[in-house]
Amino acid sequence: MKLYCLSGHPTLPCNVLKFKSTTIMLDCGLDTTSVLNFLPLPLVHSPRLSKLPSWVSKDGTINLEKELKECAGRVFVDSQPEFCLPERELLDLSTIDVILISNYHCMMALPYITEHTGFTGTVYATEPTLQIGRLLMEELVKFMERVPKAQSATCWKNKEIQRMLPGPLKDAVDVWTWKRSYSMQEVNSALSKVQLVGYSQKVELFGAVQVSPLSSGYSLGSSNWIIQSHHEKVAYVSGSSLLTTHPQPMDQSSLKNSDVLILTGLTQMPTANPDGMLGEFCSNLAMTIRAGGNVLVPCYSSGVIYDLLECLYQFIESANLGTTPFYFISPVANSSLEFSQIFAEWLCHNKQSKVYLPEPPFPHAELIQTNKLKHYPSIHGDFSSEFRQPCVVFTGHPSLRFGDVVHFMELWGKSGLNTIIFTEPDFSYLDALAPYQPLAMKCVYCPIDTRLNFHQVSKLLKEVQPLHVVCPEQYTQPPLTQSHRSDLMLELQPPPMPYRRCSVLNLPFRRRYERVYILPELANSLVPSEIKPGVSMATVSAVLHSKDNKHTLQSVPKPPPVPPSKKRKRVMEEPPVVLAPKPLLSGAVPLEAFLATLQKHGITEVKVEETADGHILHLQAEDTLIQLEEDGTHIVCDNNEPLRTTLRDLVLRFLQKL
Amino acid sequence: MPEIKVTPLGAGQDVGRSCILVSIGGKNIMLDCGMHMGYNDDRRFPDFSYITQNGRLTEFLDCVIISHFHLDHCGALPFMSEMVGYDGPIYMTHPTKAICPILLEDFRKITVDKKGETNFFTSQMIKDCMKKVVPLNLHQTVQVDDELEIKAYYAGHVLGAAMVQIKVGSESVVYTGDYNMTPDRHLGAAWIDKCRPDILISESTYATTIRDSKRCRERDFLKKVHESIERGGKVLIPVFALGRAQELCILLETFWERMNLKAPIYFSTGLTEKANHYYKLFITWTNQKIRKTFVQRNMFEFKHIKAFDRSYADNPGPMVVFATPGMLHAGQSLQIFKKWAGNEKNMVIMPGYCVQGTIGHKILNGQRKLEMEGRSTLDVKLQVEYMSFSAHADAKGIMQLIRMAEPRNMLLVHGEAVKMEFLKGKIEQEFSIDCHMPANGETATVTTNPSVPVDISLNLLKREMALGGPLPDPKRPRTMHGTLIMKENSLKLVSSEQALKELGLNEHQLRFTCRVQLQDPHSDPDTLNRIYTHLKSVLKGYTIQHLPDGTVMVESIVIKVSSSAEDTSTKVLLLSWSYQDEDLGSFLSTLLKKGLPSGLC
């Protein structure tokens, strides 16, 4: 059993597990942090961005005037932003049988894999994961297609040149494999390969392996996966949460007793408490509005935003924000809000019971009804005429490199009254803001990451007790910036097996048994005998049938009756057809009892001679020797086949057959 | 031999009060717990005393499963759980869990408040009963306990309707509840995988009907409504608040829009708004088209259909009214029917099945004079139309489901005996499987023949598979030998060698040695060589070796040659073999006794 690690990003994993002749890809995360190296894509012409100076190396030898721009001491690539894909050279991706998706954030690289590698398998995901994943992909595509950029910069990727560039561009890995966004057509084709599954549904793969998604508590429809056969169990944990937010709680007990647990998607903000961050978010928001400023919240269109809106729903009145307009701007804003209301089965208990009333599970329905929250597909159109300030705007993309958020950065960045509040943990806020410097607007960093922290995960592992843990290498040492915090890493016995991008791990498995089914007819014919109390055995002679990785044992068909032929004379000439080789024997032949048996069969003249290891019986009348020992019997008998077979059967009476 | 027993307490050769007991692998499961609309006495509920004469049902039942929210499938639930007594889990899907208590409360109100019955379940009992409900998701495998697992499949029929698979070990039963094999305007079609249950328990409401296409029926329905409206008549459509009503509303709504009609359409009871809300929130349970477009346009927001008030019934002019309940056995639909029955311009359209004893059933059978309470009679002059809109599978659909699931046995419930008989014949003929149709209180028993799961050592399996080659030869099946070790609850199949080791037994070697005299005037090595050649020609397909130490080995049988001391042309062959080679050893000794053929060189 092997694990191929195609992504080095601990929360956007992409691993391939080879297990019992199946090849299973676990998640298909797209590392989007690469876009931070690019200039933002403005929706309307930005004089500031277009006037940025080109970057020239100190000695002036490198001048990629068209490709590299400088802003506040940082260098950016002026091109359509590109993403860092999962590794594609480590193994032949066309051999992948299935892809298991754990949540909608971890499927963004799907079109690259399913459309361009010869993939012919099936993708498994829950319905909310599919629907919301589709929305996030659609949003990404629209963000990119709305502002087409003719230029695709490639010269800077030249190894010689890249080496000379300042960081972080210099240190970017595998820049040649970076790819632009996919098209809507590719998204649709990729998603048509998805087969929907429900929590705890057991899906058989080729009869060899069973996979089953479990609620992971992180987002709508998010799952961990169990991959098991009758005797081996792998648990794949990705993006799980024990906090009470909107999704169904995490199913922990089903993870128990796994041989290997692959652990990914822990919190990226181990020191930030989500509840505290939520409080800070609200107070900063209220403060800015009261001072007459606007609030910009760069966010994904699904996920934490539902919790933020719910929090604001309770907060608005008490903070006297009843008249402040809240805007949610995204090509998929409406769909995301609507979809969130129809997945009752996937929500926490509280929200589920609302549906029984029947009421919408999320209170943002009421915010929309009372006109407190308005949503628009983009800043163009209705929004531009209805827009009032001061206001709060939720919009993407959280990297600040594309999407409507770029416009608001240009619009509000120059005023110290406005505030930008970062809530998504995926991007460093300083890096995100770099191309907008110098900036007058206030920046507040309240990353909300509800995924497991190190404390929670060590408690979880103690409870579910996997034999081995595999995790990204980042989790086996404290974060670089906090090297003294030994509590911010995994400490386990035996130590976890770390992986990094391009690792291939041999998972410590010893498969010893496989399941077979004994058909009723054969089962009924078996004759068990008790060896010792509570332990019985039976010899089995059967025909093995293996089909679709399922094995069954059937009775041996009776040989067709030999036709009573004229060839009878020749029968002896035919060597025996060995149908049933003789069983192994066990036990010992007791002397006294054996002699008595011989006597019963008319063999009376027996001379017994004691030897070092047992006895030699001399049957004088028959001139035959029987050597009886603890672990062996030797019959020496010439020219008397009937006698030999009789003796054989008499000996066998005392022995156990296996 | 293990057995599965199925006993209907209701819906056995009947429609109404569905309640089926299944005993499988030592587990007892109750499928549905419905009421009978045709009765107002004890026969209204299933006879739970069949399970136990006195006391609670908890210890006799492992779980209760409700297939959908129709009262003939869940109407007796609070009575069973709160009045007879059952505290175990009750499984149903989310939509059923949401809607079922509302219909139960409706049912209770009609029975207690309007008819003044006492000794009926209370509102509190409905609430307490619902607390015992565990929601089921589609395709989720729910482990009721260590051995019993259940899984729900989509059944169409009404919002949240499910078929359930019940599994203990390798034995399984599928219960369909009510289902529909063709998608309609708001729901999808039932689907199940090839799960090969030991018994498929299917409803058979339309066992003998093969219905024409849905389009024709819809066109018929619209034509009839339209004609009646045109001549100024009033149209009554008795429906159940949820289900068919929404489908017909979608149908009329689009028709009114297209034809630009002005006659009002009303929907009785306050449930409409609420009912439509359920459809909005459970949109994932509707058909693909509605699911796909719901963000842009919600099909359950109606423009032309308004809430009904009792006084409207006397308004002049044409109108269409949807009123509950659907079988005209009580409530608003019955009141309106009484008002309108005398006018031949009016029309009542029965869009679904009516159980025996209800007014709906009577008028459908052509009865024109009805005896009402208080010895009054009612003359029925209005037109009575029947449109089969209720979403049950027809004969074709039932056969289709059997083909999908491939059951080993079939069992029919929820239908009339005569019709079942007909379908039973068809099923037995077409699929060559047994088909049962027990009456209420009768038990159908099916013996199963489960395979025994065993853990085989991988070494043994791999060895066997390697020897067997990639393609098994049906003419020469290979026999595999092993030892089955039974310890506590584990069954392990290992090679005999491994079994000796695991059981801590010593191996006992049984050997035979046999001297054969042979007349062969050659030197010893020559004789040996001649034996070798001889055996080579006789024993095809065996490993025969001539070893340099002066022996011939046939498989593991050793043959040595020595000359007799007195006569060098008399050779003595020494054969030695172990018990494992007994057949071959015995054969060789007999063969060699006959001497060597003279033609050998």
From TrEMBL, chain A:
GO CC field: cytosol; INTAC complex; integrator complex
SUPFAM superfamilies hit by this protein: Metallo-hydrolase/oxidoreductase
InterPro entries in alphabetical order: Beta_Casp, Integrator_9su, IntS9-like_C, Metallo-B-lactamas, RibonucZ/Hydroxyglut_hydro
Location of this chain's protein in the cell: Cytoplasm; Nucleus
Gene Ontology biological process: negative regulation of transmembrane receptor protein serine/threonine kinase signaling pathway; regulation of cellular response to growth factor stimulus; RNA polymerase II transcription initiation surveillance; snRNA 3'-end processing
Lineage start: Eukaryota, Metazoa, Chordata, Craniata, Vertebrata
Listed Pfam families: Beta-Casp (PF10996), IntS9_C (PF21382), Lactamase_B_6 (PF16661)
Primary localization class, coarse: cytoplasm
Xref: SMART domains: Beta-Casp
Official protein name in the record: Integrator complex subunit 9
Family (UniProt): Belongs to the metallo-beta-lactamase superfamily. RNA-metabolizing metallo-beta-lactamase-like family. INTS9 subfamily.
Domain Beta-Casp, first and last residues per copy: 305-433
From TrEMBL, chain B:
A single GO molecular function term of this UniProt record: RNA endonuclease activity
Cofactor(s) required for function per UniProt: Zn(2+)
InterPro entries, alphabetized: Beta_Casp, INTS11-like_MBL-fold, IntS11_C, MBL, Metallo-B-lactamas, RibonucZ/Hydroxyglut_hydro, RMMBL
Domain Beta-Casp: 245-363
Domain Metallo-beta-lactamase per the UniProt entry, residue ranges: 16-229
Pfam families associated with the record: Beta-Casp, IntS11_C, Lactamase_B_6, RMMBL
Main location per the UniProt record: cytoplasm
Highest taxon of source: Eukaryota
GO CC, one annotated term: cytoplasm
GO biological process, one term: snRNA processing
Keywords: Cytoplasm, Hydrolase, Metal-binding, Nucleus, Zinc
Location in or out of the cell: Cytoplasm; Nucleus
Family assignment from sequence similarity: Belongs to the metallo-beta-lactamase superfamily. RNA-metabolizing metallo-beta-lactamase-like family. INTS11 subfamily.
Protein's UniProt name: Integrator complex subunit 11
